[in-house]
């Protein structure tokens, strides 16, 4: 058994990916942890108060390790007013979006959430969208929290190692949801796991966890052959009865084929992989011309919320990795984990 697994008392080398947007509930994450893998809560778009409620619930549902994911605050600049107005006029229901000035508070709750993790003795924490400040990483580590960073290049992985992380999650281009990229690159921050795992493994002295497109034992074994010490898996858990993904979202995943997903900035202003739908097709020519993250996300929120409520998959963000084509669902946590590793 790898050391990172012993540190977290895991019997399976699998992390259920944190998936922000209300998709992962304590019920799902605790079911994963209770099976001997690492369940994860996503704190993105969740207030500190709501996160605390989930932590309390989590403690009632499992006494095993689980992870909480934190979005690292990025430097943000307000875009030109003209661009804001242009998008407000074009995105369906954008007039119902929260005013940007109200977002200030939301952008600054990172430290408050880190304090909650310490207060509740959370055993593991992962960071995405950048490096955590040194003092925060140190405080969490001192509290006994195992730290994971999310990297999309070997350079980002190295930067996390130097920031004191205990392990790095390598997010391949196959992965569903937002890219964790944060350092500039000469080419594209778009490495497939086949290239990324060995490059990062050879450059690092800490465990590396592979994420992106993995859904069964073949993927786990391939990742391990390339040097990965474990895997992080997201999309397959969206089809579990324990997940709170909407039926329309689950149907879109179950019906998707081969190359039905792509990276887009159109929903949030940051690159993320999802199943192509009408919204993505309509605004395709505007890829890369959106407002910065998370402002664009705020503008599309009322549209996405309405679509989710009315079961209209054409206007929801259908985040999914390249494994989506092989998923059928419905399923449950136990079955997903059995597909990934022998019990
Ligand atoms: C719906 C969805 C939401 C996600 N949200 C987060 C998140 O909040 N934080 C994070 O670090 N990663 C997030 N990810 C990325 C995952 O951590 C992971 O990289 C990805 O799920 C792996 O690819 P797979 O979905 O093909 O298994 C999300 C992925 C999906 C599919």
Automatic annotation (TrEMBL):
Cofactor dependency: FMN
User: Is the keyword Iron assigned to this protein?
Assistant: no
Signal peptide region = none
Q: Which UniProt keywords apply?
A: Detoxification, Flavoprotein, FMN, Monooxygenase, Nucleotide-binding, Oxidoreductase
Kindly list the GO molecular function terms attached to this UniProt entry. Answer: nitronate monooxygenase activity; nucleotide binding
GO BP annotations, alphabetical order: response to toxic substance
- Which Pfam families does the entry mention? NMO
Please describe what this protein does.
Nitronate monooxygenase that uses molecular oxygen to catalyze the oxidative denitrification of alkyl nitronates. Acts on propionate 3-nitronate (P3N), the presumed physiological substrate. Probably functions in the detoxification of P3N, a metabolic poison produced by plants and fungi as a defense mechanism.
Task: Quote the protein name from its UniProt record.
Answer: Probable nitronate monooxygenase
The species is Bacillus velezensis (strain DSM 23117 / BGSC 10A6 / LMG 26770 / FZB42) (Bacillus amyloliquefaciens subsp. plantarum)
């Amino acid at each position: 058994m790898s050391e990172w697994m012993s540190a977290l008392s895991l019997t399976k080398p699998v992390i259920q990916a944190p998936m922000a947007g209300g998709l992962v509930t304590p019920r799902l994450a605790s079911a994963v942890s209770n099976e001997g893998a690492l369940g994860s809560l996503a704190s993105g778009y969740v207030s500190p108060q709501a996160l605390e409620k989930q932590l309390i619930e989590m403690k009632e549902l499992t006494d095993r390790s689980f992870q909480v994911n934190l979005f690292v605050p990025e430097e943000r600049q307000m875009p030109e007013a003209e661009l804001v107005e242009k998008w407000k006029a074009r995105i369906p229901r954008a007039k119902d979006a929260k005013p940007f000035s109200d977002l200030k508070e939301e952008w600054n709750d990172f430290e408050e959430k880190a304090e909650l993790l310490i207060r509740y003795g959370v055993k593991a924490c992962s960071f995405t969208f950048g490096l955590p400040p040194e003092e925060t990483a140190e405080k969490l580590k001192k509290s006994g929290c195992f730290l994971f960073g999310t990297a999309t290049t070997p350079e980002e992985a190295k930067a996390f190692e130097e920031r004191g992380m205990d392990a790095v999650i390598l997010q391949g281009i196959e992965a569903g949801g937002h890219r964790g990229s944060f350092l500039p690159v000469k080419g594209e921050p778009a490495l497939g796991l086949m290239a990324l795992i060995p490059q990062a493994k050879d450059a690092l002295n800490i465990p590396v966890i592979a994420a992106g497109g993995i859904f069964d034992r073949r993927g786990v074994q391939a990742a391990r052959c390339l040097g990965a010490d474990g895997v992080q898996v997201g999309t397959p858990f969206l089809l579990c009865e324990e997940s709170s993904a909407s039926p329309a979202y689950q149907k879109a995943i179950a019906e998707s084929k081969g190359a039905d997903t792509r990276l887009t900035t159109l929903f949030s202003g940051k690159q993320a992989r999802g199943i192509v739908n009408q919204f993505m097709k309509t605004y395709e020519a505007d890829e890369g011309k959106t407002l910065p993250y998370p402002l664009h996300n705020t503008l599309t929120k009322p549209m996405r919320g309405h679509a989710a409520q009315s079961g209209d998959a054409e206007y929801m963000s259908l985040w999914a990795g390249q494994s989506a084509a092989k998923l059928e669902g419905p399923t449950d946590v136990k079955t997903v984990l059995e597909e990934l590793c022998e019990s």
